[in-house]
Write a structure and sequence with these properties.
homodimer, alpha+beta, Arc Repressor Mutant, subunit A, Enolase-like, domain 1, 3 domains, five-stranded antiparallel sheet, three-stranded antiparallel sheet, 13 helices, DNA-binding, DeoR_HTH (chains A, B), stress response (chains A, B)
DNA sequence: GATTAGCACTCAACGAGTCCGAGTGCCAGT
DNA sequence: ACTGGCACTCGGACTCGTTGAGTGCTAATC
């Protein structure tokens, strides 16, 4: 009853189930996979695997399907696969001529969803301390203004503020000039100090503090984290293995950025390379029938790309695709 | 066989079918709706309505359901409804404290999807000629730069360009200064002329033409049109009336912005107030089982909000919600 | 001791047969 | 022009046997 063979059986079950989406039985295994033993032996192994919680039967007299725990073992120890050459090429050509950060992210997410046939998610490169390059104020009607902050690392933040009382043009223009003088090229504590001084100077416009705080947060790494996704139709496509009523909550979770962001953060903490959450491991009811494969990218690996699909998914393939896209993104973003 | 009563019957069928999602029969109608006639009479009316193509039977000995043509008549002549007071309030409170154009759009689309329980779509306010307020260039590595254009109407456009050969810092800074001088406050033809002169001036940096063209398109109204949506889970939710395999193509069409944009444009041409496309009227295979209710907003009604759902949807309710959100958006965006 | 062959057993899936009733169309009567 | 009544249709639900994939167990074999 070598453990090795038992693992081979588990691997065969996972691969079989993923391929056919039907419970796999001992006989079929013995015949199609070259395991070199009879179906009876496989049955014995299966009994043990079931006892250990790696596989389960939907009902008596059906084949076995992997449990979350089974997939976990498979992913951790049994999977291995290279990325098809065609995919590698696709990544290069598809992403090479993006004009813009948005464009890069947009293309990546589409590409990844096509390669994996899953829902792809890309978290916007999470922002880090960066010097301020330019602050611009634009009047919007009489009572509001738009604050635009361009950072040295090519990020652009914008936000509207109320002006409170009417500000004369002259004061407005002076504010723009002065704040740029105070902020330009500065970061972190130095920036904060300079802006504090500016906002606190006598006779200052009443909305100076508001602007200052926007500029500071922008320099500190931007306002909010965002996630974009693509390929949601893959959830609904025939043979996804998800019931119609399972997919509505998943779509909700996706639109509910917060949930997804928290999950991705947790996964980032995992560390190395590609990390995988399987079914209930997502700790989220709506996602309990799905798995997520994610990899960090960008400098200090602060952002994440991932693919989300039914627990019954092609782990080796998705892991390879996610890894490849993450690598490529790192290269593009780091320049 | 007054036409009036026949229309009343059609209205009753539409309302009944929308409510229950089941074919409605003559008897049930006679009992629940106060039409003042017997089921036999209704049956006669139904026979005529069917002959005229307004209703159909899924199979003999089932009730009738409205056809696209039936819904069309209903929408054009028979529907009328006010927006629930609670919804009106929701719109005010929900949208009032948005900080930013993105935020407004984001909130609107969520709100609308909640009010209608459909997929909501909002096209970004489509841009119009506007003066340039500031052009900023940011180096990205040695070979690329980011061009940021802030327009007087509070739009921010950005795009990356390759620098070609190395540009000395000094030339770079001079370019920034000069282009701002040329562009600031200018629009349209004047802007184009000024930038042409700038780009053509002797000893100019090699990438000047690229920057100039970006600035011109930005001033002309921005780069691309975009659509955001929310509430896709409403498609999958139980009782949406859409089959599992119908919804995948719909999700694809949504992500395929182009399709949606073209459709919205067509609808905008329709003109007045709220316009509706029912089923096959969308002229799009993937959407043949869905309807879209859309309304224009913004100055010169150039942009659109809409709700998309199964043909079997609550038209009066959705129309009211879409109209209300469009009105509100107009007010916010026009300031 | 591990593997195999054989056998009895279980149970979802399938198809055939049956019944039920909502819904229809039509006709004759008011 | 409307209504009551009646015969007819046909999908949906329900039952019930059959089938076959798949199992667990035991005894024989390597």
């Amino acid at each position: 009853m070598s453990e090795e063979r038992r693992h081979a059986v588990l691997r065969a079950i996972v691969e079989g189930y993923v391929a056919t989406h039907e419970p796999v039985g001992s006989k079929a295994l013995a015949e199609t996979r070259a395991l070199g033993v009879s179906s009876a032996t496989i049955r014995n192994d299966m009994a043990i695997l079931e006892e250990e919680g790696f596989i389960a039967q939907p009902h008596t007299s059906a084949g076995r399907i992997p449990t979350d725990k089974g997939y976990r073992l498979f992913v951790d120890h049994l999977a291995a696969s290279a990325l098809p050459e065609a995919h590698k090429r696709a990544i290069g050509t598809f992403l090479s001529d993006a004009v813009d950060l948005n464009d890069v992210v947009e293309r990546s997410v589409r590409l990844l969803s096509q390669l994996t046939r899953q829902v792809a998610v890309v978290q916007y490169p999470s922002l880090r301390e960066s010097a301020v390059r330019r602050v611009e104020l634009v009047r919007l009607g009489a009572e509001h203004a738009l604050v635009v902050v361009v950072s040295a690392d090519a990020r652009v933040d914008q936000q509207t503020i109320p002006l409170g009382e009417a500000t004369p043009d002259e004061a407005f223009e002076r504010a723009v000039r002065d704040i740029n003088e105070a902020a330009q090229g500065r970061t972190g504590a130095a920036l904060e100090k300079a802006l504090e001084a500016w906002a606190g100077s006598p006779g200052q416009v009443p909305w100076a503090a508001a602007v200052a705080s926007i500029v500071v947060t922008a320099a500190r790494g931007g306002t909010v984290e965002r996630v974009v996704f693509a390929g949601t139709s893959n959830l609904a496509r025939a043979g996804s293995g998800l019931e119609a009523d399972t997919i509505a909550p998943v779509l909700d979770a996706l639109e509910e950025q917060v949930v997804l962001l928290r999950l991705l953060h947790e996964m980032a903490a995992g560390g190395d390379d590609v990390s995988v959450r399987i079914g209930a491991e997502t700790h989220h009811e709506a996602l309990s029938r799905t798995s997520i494969v994610a990899a960090a990218y960008g400098r200090d690996a602060s952002s994440l790309v991932g693919a989300l699909g039914p627990t019954r998914m092609d782990y080796p393939g998705t892991m390879a695709a996610v890894r490849a896209v993450a690598r490529y993104l790192s290269r593009v973003v780091e320049l």
